[in-house]
Amino acid sequence: MNTIIIYKGKYGATRQYAQLLAQTLNTTSVDASVTDDAMLRSANIVIAGSAIYIGRLMISAWLHKHKAILEQKQLHLFVVCGTPLSDQQAIKTLIDRNIPAELRHNLSLFFLKGRMIKENLSFKDRLLLRMGAAFTKDPEAKNNMLRNFDEVKADHLTPIILAVKSSITEPPEHTPNMKNH
């Protein structure tokens, strides 16, 4: 089966995960901005990866644009963020706002820890981060928003790799299968 990895990120964590997946699965990772319909049509399995920026999946517009083709594929989506799987309301909102309803029945969804190094952020993003923290009531959440972290690790990809390998022999599930690592 032919597998392709499509990703869209901003500061490199999503690209790093996509490249690690590509090496492990012996396939190609491609930035969403340079994909075309022919690439998608040639794949049986599509793994899409996205960072979250201001509450939106960066790959959301791409998913909507290509949903007719993606509906026919085994689709796995990894989201690089800090949202814990225990925050079901945030996850539901994220899915409802960003993933076309037509794709949700055929989707395995994974949440991966990412990276945030304040010194690497643009001025605008540092400002947005400070403003978001200022409006956050929970002191622990506020503190977490303002600290540097780098949780990008190859072993976080194990559930995705297992899902892709099993999707080669098993039909996809009918509801989003959400996993957090």
Distance between the termini: 26 Å
Rounded to the nearest angstrom, the radius of gyration is 16 Å
Strand content: 15-25%
CATH topology of the largest domain: Rossmann fold
Share of helical residues:
40-55%
Low-confidence stretches: none
Helix segment count?
9
| Average pLDDT rating | 86
Strand and helix order: EHEHEEHHEHHEEHHEHE
**General form:** globular
Compact summary:
This protein is of the alpha/beta class and 181 residues long. It has two domains: 3-114 and 151-180, Flavodoxin domain (Rossmann fold, 3-Layer(aba) Sandwich), CATH 3.40.50; 119-149, no CATH class.
3D structure, described in words:
This protein is an alpha/beta fold and 181 residues long. The chain has two domains: 3-114 and 151-180, Rossmann fold (3-Layer(aba) Sandwich), CATH 3.40.50.360; 119-149, no CATH class. The protein is built from nine helices and nine strands. Strands 1, 2, 3, 4, 5, 6 and 9 form a seven-stranded mixed beta sheet that branches. A two-stranded antiparallel ribbon has the order 7-8. Strand 3 and strand 4 (56-57) form a beta hairpin. Helix 7 (123-134) packs antiparallel against helix 8. The longest helix is centred in the first third of the chain and has 13 residues, at 13-25. It is globular and about 45 Å long. The two termini are 26 Å apart.
